[in-house]
Specification:
By secondary structure, this protein is of the alpha+beta class. Helices cover 26% and strands 31% of the residues. It has a domain of 129 residues: Gcn5-related N-acetyltransferase (GNAT) (Aminopeptidase). The protein contains 4 helices and 8 strands. The longest helix has 17 residues.
Length: 199
């Protein structure tokens, strides 16, 4: 998906496609929010995870993923420059085209920004972007049952429970069950899937 990197504005946030220049901000976000917060719902942190060099390399790969159409990773920031603080992330990954037109969604918010409706604000805008600009039909989001806050957020956003996967991801020292949910695009243009000359 070449072209200018997307930036979306909501009432309180700027949602930026991540880029290598944000490495220090991303490292700081995870260093400040990992222990006792994000680590409860995430795979173990890799060596160097809280350092800018690690994130510079990862964000360079993220840019390639965007260009190839494999993923779209966004940082949540207060209005201002891209050098400002990162307060959350929303990642649309494992994008599959063809008859599936779907992706997986993952998201994280800073511990001191919980309960303010910021993630809902971000996801309402980004889910619409995924459907309208990226042309996806299905967004899948899965969560650990104990993460009730995440489950309630997805329900408010219109995600429907579709199943339960036992021992789904290795998180915090054990294989964790996950609730499987999805949101589908009611306005998806099915004609875009038809081969040329089919009519």
């Amino acid at each position: 998906m070449p072209g200018p990197l997307p930036e979306l504005e909501t009432t309180r946030l700027t949602l930026r496609l991540v880029r290598p220049a944000m490495a220090a901000c991303m490292a700081r976000f995870f260093a400040d929010n990992w222990e006792g917060h994000l680590d409860r719902w995430s795979p173990a942190a890799a060596p160097g995870y809280f350092e800018a060099k690690f994130w510079r390399d990862r964000l360079e790969r993220a840019a390639l993923e965007w260009e190839s159409g494999g993923a779209a990773r966004f940082a949540l920031q207060p209005h201002g420059p891209e050098s400002g603080p990162v307060i959350g992330t929303c990642n649309y990954t494992n994008i599959v085209r063809g008859p599936f037109q779907a992706c997986h969604l993952g998201y994280q918010i800073a511990r001191d920004r919980q309960g303010l409706g910021l993630m809902r604000e971000a996801l309402e805008a980004l889910d619409a972007f995924a459907f309208e600009a990226m042309g996806l039909h299905r967004i899948m989001a899965n969560y650990v049952p104990e993460n009730e806050r995440s489950g309630k957020l997805l329900e408010r956003l219109g995600f429907e429970r579709e199943g339960f996967a036992k021992r789904y991801l290795y998180i915090n020292g054990a294989w964790r069950d996950h609730v499987l949910t999805a949101l589908t695009n009611p306005d998806f243009d099915d004609a875009t899937l038809e081969p040329r000359g089919a009519r």
